[in-house]
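User: Okay, second chain of the day. Same drill as before: sequence in, structure tokens out.
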Amino acid sequence: MGANESHNMDQVKQDLKNVLAGEALTEDDIIDIKSVAEENFVPITKKTVAYIVSGVFFNEKNEVLMMQEAKRSCYQMWYLPAGRMELNETIEEGVVREVLEETGLICKPTTLLSLEFRQGHWYRFTMTGVITGGKLKSSNESDKESLQANWFSIEAIRKNIPIRCRDIFKLIDIAATYRNNPVKRVDIRPAIKSHKKLLLRLVVVHYNSDRNEMVLLVGCKKRNHLPVTLLSDTDFSLEHAVFKVFQKVFGGKHASPQLHGVVSVEHCGRPAALNDGICISVLVSLKDAAPTKIILQDLFTWLPIDDDGTKKEILERNLDGQTVVVPP
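Assistant: Same drill. Structure tokens below.
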């Protein structure tokens, strides 16, 4: 390995540490897998791409903050504070705005809980955090945003009040699991970085427990880097997008990826219509060692991870509850 290649691999190792910490990478991403249609697609918030934000917040009684809908289509039904992100808005700003508009409370988001993905161009980011101020909206303060807000136990939400849509049950369960998990994971907040496309960055590892050996999949185009693909409207789930990457990388040969979850999200949204893209980093492991023996035609290679601390962190992040959940 030459000096330049060794330096590049050192940078990949640093990029891996940054991504696992939920931080944005400084260099522009090199896209390894793309099509003409995906290259020509321009994400524009509220036009060509839908970014939804929602929040799950608990009080000291372990009750969940809910709002009562004012919209005619779901009038008087209850739901989590949620809505579409606006132009020139970050993910956290969207959560703060929606919670304030619909419940009257001021929140401080502290971590992403889940990221839902549909057909390449629809995303819902659910965050949790703490309530720092404001006044709970009463029925006397109803407006077009909501009729009122209140705190309910999880049992009451499931059994006693009319719910707009049962899809919030899984989000509340994810939040409760995070809140009650004795092994606290790294808090993952959306990192501020501009992107013009919809990107999926893959952290793909294989671990041989007998030998305590771990390898990381690395793209080799232009410089060594974590592999990146463009997300498409034909990707009906993140699992499907990962599977498509594996088909292309390994030439259709047997590979069994396991998606553990999201480890970082990069988004900025400013200026609007120019930087409305996103980059989602996911942690994927190989169940089978066979793909690590495949010659990857100078486009990809395997990098040994020698640092025990990095190996330990990746293995811990493979456990349930240690990444941002990607609900089915």
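The longest helix spans residues 3-20.

User: Thanks, on to the next one.
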